[in-house]
Amino acid sequence: MESVRDWVSKNKLASI
């Protein structure tokens, strides 16, 4: 289940 990890990583980058 690495989907959540990718999502969080992208969300953090997109948040900034």
TrEMBL record:
Name assigned to this protein: Uncharacterized protein
Species the sequence originates in: Nymphaea colorata (pocket water lily)
Lineage start: Eukaryota, Viridiplantae, Streptophyta, Embryophyta, Tracheophyta
